[in-house]
Amino acid sequence: MARVALVTGGVSGIGAATCKALQAAGFAVAASFVADEAAARGFREQTGIATYRWDVADFDACQQGVAEVVRTLGPVDVLVNNAGITRDASLHKMTREQWRAVIEVNLGGCFNMCHAVIGSMRERGYGRIVNLSSVNGLAGQFGQANYAATKAGIIGFTKSLALESAAHGITVNAVAPGYTDTPMVAAVRPEVRERIVAGIPLRRLGRPEEVAAAILYLVSDAAAYITGETLSINGGQYLR
Ligand SMILES: NC(=O)c1ccc[n+]([C@@H]2O[C@H](COP(=O)([O-])OP(=O)(O)OC[C@H]3O[C@@H](n4cnc5c(N)ncnc54)[C@H](O)[C@@H]3O)[C@@H](O)[C@H]2O)c1
């Protein structure tokens, strides 16, 4: 029987590339999304990957969404907490709503989704969880106190859950992409984008497939002895 992998925010960007990589590796894949119904339909038609709609910031919706994935595909063996948003502003201009939204989706979503799968993984003695951090969680970023706080928080969350889960055959790791060519980065102004690329030793943005390959490795049997780690995929950006 194929292992079941669930990727939140799985119909675009890094999530979509991860779903395709998991599918090619033989997993039965579930992609969740929140609003982009047309994108989800296109993705489903193009790939044959099952899509499910719920908001990761909503605890009850996560429980119900996972129950639906279990009903249709089977118990979740692999969870990739990929859903994430930005609401950029310098702190003195940042509204409580910008702060709250990013915390609830990026960090709250990670808690809600792990909570929804961890009991079953513990019972079955197997699980792989990969959480999406970011170079900006490691290095900080102007205008992203909210986003960087969530992405740094995810690293502490990952280490703690790894410690709690190791005895149950579950590994929990994070990946920290640098600037990757997805809709999230397409929203950055061209002049800012040029400045970013100039600061990357490999002189280009990352590709979603390159992040997906790292995630695929961390959920594979070859990575069974790796847990609590954060793997950077950033073209050398955080070396200096
Ligand atoms: N693109 C980058 O440069 C970059 C760099 C570092 C980290 N990341 C992280 O990688 C992840 C994917 O980023 P991306 O660039 O592919 O972004 P993206 O905007 O292309 O995709 C994000 C996905 O998350 C989904 N999503 C957003 N809010 C949601 C919610 N409340 N419930 C369910 N789904 C929700 C969106 O529908 C979308 O499908 C994010 O966590 C992001 O923070 C991205």
In short:
By secondary structure, the protein is α/β, with parallel strands linked by helices.
Q: Could you say what the CATH topology is called?
A: Rossmann fold
Unreliable stretches covering 5 or more consecutive residues? none
Q: Mean of the pLDDT scores?
A: 96
Number of helices: 9
Q: Radius of gyration, Cα only, in angstroms?
A: 17 Å
What structural class do helix, strand and pairing data support? alpha/beta
Name the CATH homologous superfamily.
Answer: NAD(P)-binding Rossmann-like Domain
Number-wise, the strands total 7
The ligands found in this model are: nicotinamide-adenine-dinucleotide
The fraction of residues in strands falls at 15-25%
Cα distance spanning the termini = 46 Å
What is the count of structural domains? 1
Shape verdict? globular
Main beta sheet, described? Answer: 7 strands, parallel
What is the H-and-E element order? EHEHEHEHEHHEHHHE
Helix content: 40-55%
